Amino acid sequence: MTRPLKLVISGPVGAGKTTFVQTLSETEVIATEAVPSEDIGKPSTTVAFDYGTLRLEDQELHLYGTPGQDRFDFMWDVLAQDALGLVMLVGGHKPRDFPAARGILEYITARHQLPFVLAVTRQDQPGVWRPEDLALYVQLPPHQVIGIDATNRASAATALVRLLEHLPARHDQDVTLLT
Amino acid sequence: MTSTMSKQEVLNATLSTLRANLPELKGVLVATADGLPIAQTMSAGTDANRVAAMAATALGLGKRIGDTVGSGVLTEMSVSGTDGMVFFYAAGRGVLAVVAPAGMNLGLLMMEARDAATAVSSVL
Ligand SMILES: Nc1nc2c(ncn2[C@@H]2O[C@H](COP(=O)(O)OP(=O)(O)OP(=O)(O)O)[C@@H](O)[C@H]2O)c(=O)[nH]1
Ligand SMILES: [Mg+2]
Q: What ipTM was estimated for this complex?
């Protein structure tokens, strides 16, 4: 058995972080939702984190979703601590949030060395940004940007599969030490 | 007092009363459940926006911890250190944060802070 991989799911408000964790988790999700006092187009927003777990490709994954507002930047930092990878979500329907996504990405990667993938949500909807266009726009290699429907398990899982491909090969020294 | 005062006036009056009754306090703040400050008397050098966001985070986390250990509806969450403490009280749709120095009379603090939390929840 290898050790669980801690992965962080981040992105701007409404990108679909909580949805993503809820769609993928095989255990009951711990969520910390509060009623928004600003109009953000949905009835709740994350104030601490989302936590869920799943097995994928024989790996135990622990997913930590962050809040999206800048005022919660301390949580981005807390949750990225000791994480092994990052899924950055952006809503394909909300291009005006792309700069906010970049801000979060820069905040986290400046403090933690984390491989990441950028996943554009809402691919099940018409008229949204497609991953290949976003990759061009943010100047990332195409394989690092994927499109998903965060409400669909198989689709959301492709973001994790892609992230796992970007992780450095895991050695089993830790495990040997433990056994 | 609620009938004649605006929500903001009630919040400000509540914080003033709390500070007057407990002058040792280092700061008092009311935030929305999603972490925006709506009334505050924090001492200079403490970022009220940050405390407000953290108050929401603390309460959100406190609720989940409470669920896990079966402690019922969350009333309060606290952090204590060698040099001080902060208490976060659930107050209706908001949160009251009370920052205190080390060595304060906790019984008195609890009593006053709970009264303040009740006043806050009457308008939030
Ligand atoms: N159709 C569709 N809806 C989505 C998708 N991703 C998210 N949503 C919806 O968009 C909303 C996103 O809400 P959340 O998952 O709470 O977003 P979040 O990123 O956690 O937001 P904050 O916690 O407020 O920062 C929900 O209503 C989801 O159902 C998607 O890929 N397709
Ligand atoms: Mg969320």
A: 0.89
